[in-house]
Design goal:
- By secondary structure, the protein is mainly α.
- It has one domain.
- About 80% of the residues lie in helices and about 0% in strands.
- The chain has seven helices and no strands.
- The protein is globular.
- The N terminus is likely disordered.
Length: about 220
């Protein structure tokens, strides 16, 4: 009997070590992704394809089912989102963008209203799925953060300045959620994301101002 318990304990230990290793790898990729996003570098979309694959196993193993579903969504949609984001960032008015393609802009008011409606709808659907189909202990915050993340991803693909504000809220909620679930590295990563969302907002705002200034000079010359 003791031998059986030893095997089980060993398997659980190895499983835990694998979880922490994947968590660490995910954190590393997340930092690379954030740096590329901060610099408004289109290569961030390439890294964005890899991260969800790791997250699928990580989230399912820790019982974060909405995050698990989000990771599947990312895995299925990552290529589409990457192609869309990559192509969208390279199209449009490139004056004053220093070769970076479409300039950073504000989210139009009409699109903000649509985004809010979509967010509320996604939140409600995810919440219902969690309470009826899973044993999630955090259905409200899990569904909230992931619904908001979907909208933020869309805003990022559209290169709207306000995407940073959406990520600020989502990342702050996810930081506390991952800490509650006992993950070691992920709360640190998302805590860092939360702080960097503030810096990222002002960085993009500065870039947008420089782009607008360059465009004005070009139009007046």
């Amino acid at each position: 009997m003791s031998d059986v318990w030893t095997v089980i304990s060993s398997a659980l230990s190895q499983h835990g070590e694998a979880i922490h290793l994947l968590d660490a790898i995910g954190v590393t990729l997340g930092l690379v992704y954030l740096w590329l996003e901060f610099k408004a570098n289109v290569l961030m979309w390439v890294v964005g394809i890899i991260m969800p694959i790791i997250d699928i196993y990580l989230y399912f193993s820790t019982g974060l089912y909405a995050d698990f579903g989000m990771a599947i969504y990312y895995s299925v949609a990552a290529i589409v989102a990457a192609v869309y984001g990559f192509s969208h960032w390279h199209t449009g008015d490139t004056i004053g963008t220093k070769g970076s393609g479409r300039p950073i802009t504000h989210m139009p008011l009409r699109e903000s209203g649509v985004a809010l409606i979509v967010f509320l709808g996604l939140w409600a659907v995810m919440y219902e799925l969690l309470i009826h189909l899973t044993d999630s202990t955090v259905p409200v915050t899990d569904s909230f953060a992931n619904a908001l993340s979907i909208v933020a991803l869309w805003a990022l693909a559209r290169k709207y300045l306000e995407q940073w504000l959406l990520w600020l809220v989502a990342d702050a909620v996810l930081t506390s959620l991952y800490a509650y679930k006992g993950l070691l590295f992920r709360p640190c990563l998302y805590g860092f994301y939360t702080v960097m969302a503030v810096f990222g907002y002002f960085k993009w705002k500065k870039i947008m101002h420089e782009q607008n200034t360059s465009k004005t000079i070009a139009n007046n010359s």
